[in-house]
């Protein structure tokens, strides 16, 4: 989940704790070239301020008005926006896609489980919020229904649940569907069994980027990683260079030997298949033990800076350290895409571009020279890169 979504939920919780009502708009489904994925949110505060986005600007004004109305009268609305026409007053998407947006009032009465949800998020727990979109459905399996329209919620995580839908579709069935989506880190709309349609918003902790090397290239990559929504750690064994003031965008600045730091993160359960590791150390005594450790792990991306000659020497050293060719094939080195740049900022963009390309299974071609949909749905990630920063 990106940092904007985190800010949206934490600001919503602040208002909720203060006993105030807010309007919350959530993208629950998309089709075609939609600008924002399911789970994207826009918060409208009681004084009319906004946090977040549901469309990147196309329909924000219309959604804003609905959110203000929801604050006033408590009416929940499920609105669909498709392709806009040429009329000046038309509201729609210029990108050719379609989005469905749930707009609702949030306060202590309408969302009593919000405190549990945000507590789970603050603890770094992946948590799912299941919200009923439809009214009661016939044939819901014989359970008693409490009546009313859509909008009842159930919060679930690996170790428990809070709240309940109050609908005919059993909570156990909805919980199972929500946990399956949560395991994939993907938000989406489901219809468990023959019950009502349910939107599952999967709120997962941001993926981690571990940057090893406290130089200008490291500082530039820290900035790029933060922009991409990663929780970024900068680590180097040299105290004189590894000071927080040099890396203000880093979430953590750590003085330690790189391989020892990575091993400690693994032992503490702080890495997962979404974690990115980049070595910018240029020094074999730091780099070889680090890469020997990283390439034996299930990580999203492992990269290392270096010239062609350095790459050859490094590969030989890693083979001598016991790594097999299959493990060496996971190393992205020379790191980054060939964008032609050479300075630290340009190199950081190159590295970030490679990470994004592999995460989404992109081609790296100029869009102006391609045809067909810009956003390829269902494209498989490359080289084991999994998870998102959304």
UniProtKB/TrEMBL annotation:
Domain XdhC- CoxI: 15-82
Source domain of life: Bacteria
InterPro entries: MoCofactor_Util/Proc (IPR052698), XdhC_CoxI (IPR003777), XdhC_Rossmann_dom (IPR027051)
Name of the protein this chain belongs to: XshC-Cox1 family protein
Pfam families on file: XdhC_C (PF13478), XdhC_CoxI (PF02625)
Region (Disordered): 368-390
Domain XdhC Rossmann: residue ranges: 209-355
Annotated source species: Streptomyces carminius
């Amino acid at each position: 989940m990106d940092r904007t979504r985190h800010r949206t939920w934490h600001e919503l919780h602040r208002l909720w704790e203060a006993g105030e009502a807010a309007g919350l708009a959530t993208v629950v489904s998309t089709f075609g070239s939609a600008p924002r994925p399911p789970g994207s949110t826009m918060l409208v505060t009681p004084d009319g301020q906004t946090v977040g986005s549901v469309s990147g600007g196309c329909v924000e004004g219309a959604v804003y008005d609905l959110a203000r109305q929801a604050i006033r009268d408590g009416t929940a609305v499920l609105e669909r926006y498709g392709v806009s026409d040429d009329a000046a007053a038309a509201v729609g998407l210029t990108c050719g896609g379609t989005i469905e947006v749930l707009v609702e009032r949030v306060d202590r009465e309408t969302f009593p489980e919000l405190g549990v949800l945000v507590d789970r998020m603050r603890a770094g727990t992946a948590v799912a919020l299941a919200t009923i979109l439809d009214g009661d459905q016939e044939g819901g399996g014989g359970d008693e229904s409490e009546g009313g329209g859509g909008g009842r919620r159930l919060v679930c995580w690996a170790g428990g649940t809070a709240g309940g839908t109050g609908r005919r579709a059993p909570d156990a069935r909805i919980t199972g569907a929500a946990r399956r989506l949560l395991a994939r880190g993907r938000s989406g709309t489901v219809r468990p069994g023959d019950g009502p349609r349910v939107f599952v918003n999967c709120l997962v902790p941001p993926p981690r980027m571990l940057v090893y090397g406290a130089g200008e290239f490291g500082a530039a990559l820290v900035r790029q990683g933060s922009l991409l929504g990663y929780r970024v750690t900068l680590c180097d064994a040299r105290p004189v260079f590894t000071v927080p003031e040099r890396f203000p965008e880093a979430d953590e600045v750590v003085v330690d030997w790189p391989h020892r730091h990575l091993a400690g993160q693994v032992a503490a359960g702080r890495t997962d298949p979404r974690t990115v590791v980049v070595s910018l150390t240029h020094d074999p005594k730091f780099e070889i033990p680090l890469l020997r450790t990283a390439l034996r792990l299930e990580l999203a991306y492992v990269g290392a800076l270096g010239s062609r000659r350095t790459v050859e020497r490094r590969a030989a050293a890693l083979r001598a350290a016991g790594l097999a060719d299959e493990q060496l094939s996971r190393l992205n080195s020379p790191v980054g895409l060939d964008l032609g740049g050479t300075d630290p900022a340009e190199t950081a963009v190159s590295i970030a571009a490679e990470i994004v390309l592999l995460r989404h299974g992109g081609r790296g071609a100029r869009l102006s020279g391609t045809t067909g949909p810009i956003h390829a749905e269902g494209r498989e990630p490359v080289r084991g890169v999994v998870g998102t920063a959304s």
